[in-house]
Amino acid sequence: MAKAIDIKLQEGDPAPSFHSINQHEQSIGLSDFKGKHVILYFYPRDNTPGCTKEACAFRDAFAQLESMGVVVLGVSCDNVSSHQKFISKFELPFDLLADTSQEIVKAYGVWGPKQFMGKTFDGIHRVSFWINPEGLIERIWTKVKPDLHATEVIEAIKAFE
Fold it and tell me: Domain 38-144 adopts which CATH fold?
């Protein structure tokens, strides 16, 4: 079980700016989505059970999210090649950002100690941020259930409108 993480960012804070490379080796930055709702979801690793469930849930809800004007961006420390395989295998319609330098995960405070099978190590905690069109953090989800999270996001955005 993962230890609790102490995220310094709070709802209402400006979202930290970032630039990274997506699965097509294109530079993607938060500023590219100014004026849109962005779901920035952090996940530990491509092709792992929980991460696959979460990605597929966002895939299955993608048309609805897109119709609501929402951009979905997944972030892990996996490289571009890993993201390409993950996207291809599960037909993911959104960008995955390769944060191999850990700049984004550290800026958002989702990198930290975790525990698995009795071993402690540093890694990415499964956390999502909803960034509103003004660039402010509207909501932070720290307790994400991978298979239900996309529905939870849709419900939150509907309640906002």
Answer: Glutaredoxin (3.40.30)
